[in-house]
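testing teh design pipeline on a random one, pls ignore if ur not involved
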């Protein structure tokens, strides 16, 4: 794995070392604050929309650490907080409380410019709608993160990742000339081009048929197994989640369950149970202690 320890990161580490001893969000079952080798770490993360009686607690205390080189799927009923979780974990949204570390760097308190720079250089994104720029060629789309980051546009690197997603011969095409599955493979290549610390995928197969979805999921799986990437994927589809090493289940803004290496059937069964429980517990908050997943350090935070 790459080591990028700039001055700021060292300062962050020093600061969080001090924070660690303070342990602001304690309580029974709270995991230790720092997990070595974690690509993504959330501590006591809450996200509230609005205030007072009408406030929505989209995230009600998230504690987790995802090791580098792992593939995690996040599932949960509609409104359970999946998108909010992904946005907070990826520095696209700011939690109301708690802290987020990416690739060992504490991002809480970063300025907008710092967050933008971090996202461009150290994170990859794959969205349901591909989000390619139609006027650029496939190669230019893949090079975009480097261009935006003001870095040298490494065409050999672009060719390398395009070959990895099986599109070496499409570099000069425009997105409109490709199928949906091919466009999403370009988006995966673009997400991987900077060798990011984490790839965040929000419903990456939501717009694809089953066969094409499997191709894209196979690429994400390959990125983890062969390239050491870390992937965090939100999905509604148990078949997609079955490609992950582990599935985390969200209910009412907290992780309520998890499954290691589950089959699509097992994952679907857990989802059914969760949806039923979420209904009966509506308004009560899902504080069911899932315990620590193997190496994942997943636990329901101290919910208010
Ligand atoms: N900008 C916002 N303002 C107010 N409430 C919001 C906002 N965004 C999300 N919420 C609320 O926060 C909760 C979690 O929303 P979120 O979008 O994270 O759910 P989700 O699990 O991604 O759902 P879906 O599967 O439908 O995409 C919901 O109750 C939602 O209504
Ligand atoms: Mg969502």
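output:
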């Amino acid at each position: 794995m790459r080591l990028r320890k700039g001055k700021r990161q060292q300062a962050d580490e020093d600061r969080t070392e001090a924070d660690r001893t303070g342990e602001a969000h304690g309580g029974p079952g709270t995991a230790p604050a720092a997990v070595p080798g974690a690509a993504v770490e959330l501590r006591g993360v809450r996200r509230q929309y609005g205030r007072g009686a009408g406030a929505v607690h989209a995230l009600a205390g998230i504690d987790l650490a995802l090791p580098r080189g792992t593939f995690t799927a996040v599932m949960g009923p509609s409104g359970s907080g999946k998108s909010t979780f992904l946005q907070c974990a990826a520095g696209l949204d700011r939690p109301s409380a708690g802290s987020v570390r990416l690739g060992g760097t504490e991002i809480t308190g970063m300025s907008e410019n710092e967050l933008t720079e971090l996202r461009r250089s150290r994170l990859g994104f794959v969205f349901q709608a591909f989000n390619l720029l139609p006027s650029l060629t496939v190669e230019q789309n893949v090079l975009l993160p480097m261009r935006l980051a003001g870095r040298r546009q490494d065409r050999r690197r672009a060719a390398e990742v395009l070959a990895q997603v099986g599109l070496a011969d499409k570099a000069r095409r425009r997105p409109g000339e490709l199928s949906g599955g091919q466009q999403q493979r370009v988006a995966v290549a673009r997400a991987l081009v900077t060798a990011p610390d984490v790839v965040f995928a929000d419903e990456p197969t939501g717009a694809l048929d089953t066969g094409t979805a499997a191709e894209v999921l196979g690429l994400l799986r390959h990125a983890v197994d062969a390239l050491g990437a870390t992937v965090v994927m939100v999905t509604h589809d148990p078949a997609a989640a079955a490609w992950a090493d582990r599935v985390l289940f969200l209910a009412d803004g907290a992780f309520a369950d998890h499954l290691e290496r589950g089959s699509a059937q097992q994952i679907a069964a857990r989802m059914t149970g969760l949806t039923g429980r979420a209904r009966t517990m509506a308004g009560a908050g899902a504080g069911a202690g899932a315990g620590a997943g193997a190496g994942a350090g997943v636990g329901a935070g101290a919910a208010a």
